[in-house]
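Page 47, continued from p. 46.
Same chain as before, 362 aa.
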Amino acid sequence: MNTLNSNIEQKPSIREIFQQREHNFLSRYGTPSTSAERRHPDIAPGNIRTPFQLDRDRIVYSNAFRRLKYKTQVFLSPLGDHYRTRLTHTLEVSETARNIARAMRLNEDLAEAVALGHDLGHTPFGHGGETALIQIHSAHFTHSDQSLRVVDVLENKGKGLNLTTQVRDGILKHSKGFGNIIPATPGETASTIEGRIVRVADIIAYLNHDLDDALRGKVISWDEVPEICIRKLGTTHSARASTMMEQLVYNSGPQNGEFILSMGEETMEAMTILRKFLFEKVYRSPAVHGEFVKAKKVIIGLYKYFMENPDEMQKELEKMEMAPWDSAKNKLKRSVCDVIASMTDRYALELYARLFFPNPLV
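Result:
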């Protein structure tokens, strides 16, 4: 029996076989999981999953990930069964990032983990909720920073998920608002190519599905969409996604010893025009913006209430299975922000109604 166990232990684990496969497949610019680092050593890392695969699974099984299904993408959720939510957006980003990484012979497990975790800290009511917290909490609030805070200190009752440095870096640097689609400023993007791909995959995903949802919701019509976007990118969601992914894959590559991401001049122009069009005609349209103004009032009302009633905030932290507020570690406003940013749309609306709407006694 001891001999048999000894023979089993001498064989390479499934994790090691996967890592050898990575070594054989990845280009010199890919990130092998053997280079993964964590802030805290894993007590039992396991013999089946690589570190990036383990990160992916920790994210998927987190409370914050499950809450994404009731958080807004563009149209306040829930509005209709076919409109995107923050969860379906995340899945589309993940699928896009995986396909790109695989085609470029990069680590698709790393790209997938970053993509699945990139919006964990997004507020209820989409960017309307984010704007509200910028207004009332801090001018420096970003959902990227909050996503990193979720995986580091809020999940798992305050223990965090202990993700790898590479995944944490990709989550933190996945977005720059209305900045360049592919930034050139050093340090502005992720340290790994896989993390940088997620940023582009995020934009590819929302350009496609936000256009799709805006047409479905009759916020815009096909006649309004810039002609160059249709001509250069395609007339269907599938065609546009394929065009953008293929152009990124075929135009990217080594330059002076570095791997440079590029969409090609014509595709980049069309994507930039499409994004500007969506900001002007969809995100800032009266139909969408008007509802976000109402949503901001909900966020601000809840924030003020919890600042005045920290005991009630403690109850919400407990319901969300997050660490209780400790005044020695966090200012009250920090924990209030954590609670509100973690809420789903429906939870925030129901709580606001319970706290501020009249309740008939008979």
